[in-house]
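Whiteboard transcription, Tuesday session. T.W. wrote the structure tokens on the left side:
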């Protein structure tokens, strides 16, 4: 009997199997086709998820597609998504792109292979200006936006079917912006690290993207906003006072419908549905003393904790 394949050999075989298959493979088929995986279903799932994460962290776009059968989800690597085409860039354009990639990178070194292909000598030792968080769902969601695949996932306890317009990084988090078919096609934002469960994808060309518009505009004002009328778990109704200096700005950001009262001192009281507490707290802290969160207690406590942390850092710097 031959030696059991090493994990490196198994990942290599997995990569080849997913790249060469003409159709998405179920987890059961992967366990049979790729040597080295355990036969017990739970152990197979755990080992495959670990290997899939490793490949994605190395920049390999593994597509997740719906299939017929008991498992309902299949996997493959589409050659047109994996191989980098000739970008036909001039020397100056290649250098500019390489320096941009060097300046902003994903956590864990993701993107280094593309960077090395573009300009291995010019940027290899440059420290990044910013390192953005990397998430397992980022690469497949990016591929879905590019190929116009509808993304299906759970969010705030509800199923979603999203026609992705783009991915945006804002206030320390990644957001998917797109039309949610489950909400009648309204444009919504979904924080990627809050997506629940595995993300499934429809076939390429499943929708048409808007001819104009910047996905970042959907997050320009309130990335924390909940769906209109949403009452699912994880959505808080926050009451806050905004002083007169920031009142006009707050009315534009939070919406006229959120202004519920004018206080005797000229400040305004707002009632706002918040789906992303971290993003909301970051916005409040950025307004300084002009904004005070009154309720609920847990959001008020989060703001106070963030302000105390800033004060501590300022005192020790």
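and on the right, the sequence the group agreed on:
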């Amino acid at each position: 009997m031959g030696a059991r394949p090493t994990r490196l050999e198994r990942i290599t075989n997995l990569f080849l199997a997913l790249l060469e298959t003409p159709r998405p493979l179920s987890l059961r088929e992967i366990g049979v086709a790729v040597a080295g995986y355990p036969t017990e279903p739970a152990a197979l799932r755990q080992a495959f998820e670990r290997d899939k994460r490793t490949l994605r962290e190395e920049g390999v776009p593994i597509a997740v597609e719906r299939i017929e059968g008991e498992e309902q989800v299949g996997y493959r690597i589409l050659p047109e998504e994996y191989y980098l085409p000739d970008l036909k860039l001039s020397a100056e354009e290649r250098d500019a792109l390489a320096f941009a990639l060097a300046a902003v990178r994903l956590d864990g070194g993701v993107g280094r292979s593309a960077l090395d292909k573009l300009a291995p000598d010019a940027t290899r030792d440059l420290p990044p200006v910013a390192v953005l968080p990397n998430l397992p769902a980022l690469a497949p969601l990016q591929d879905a936006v590019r190929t116009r695949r509808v993304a299906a996932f759970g969010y705030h306890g509800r199923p979603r079917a999203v026609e992705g317009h783009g991915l945006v990084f804002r206030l320390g988090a990644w957001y998917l912006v797109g039309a949610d078919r489950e909400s009648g096609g309204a444009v919504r934002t979904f924080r990627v690290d809050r997506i629940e469960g595995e993300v499934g994808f429809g076939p390429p060309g499943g929708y048409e993207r808007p001819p104009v518009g910047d996905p970042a505009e959907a997050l320009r004002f309130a990335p924390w906003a909940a769906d209109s009328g949403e009452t699912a778990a994880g959505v808080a109704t926050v009451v806050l006072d905004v002083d007169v200096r920031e009142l006009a700005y707050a009315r534009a950001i939070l919406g006229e419908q959120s202004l519920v009262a004018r206080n005797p001192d000229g400040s305004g009281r707002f009632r706002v549905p918040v789906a992303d507490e971290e993003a909301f707290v970051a916005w409040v802290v950025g307004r300084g003393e002009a904004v005070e969160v009154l309720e609920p207690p847990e959001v008020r406590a989060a703001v106070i904790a963030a302000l105390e942390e800033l004060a501590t850092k300022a005192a020790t710097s």
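Someone added at the bottom: Residues 242 and 248 are 10 Å apart (CA to CA).
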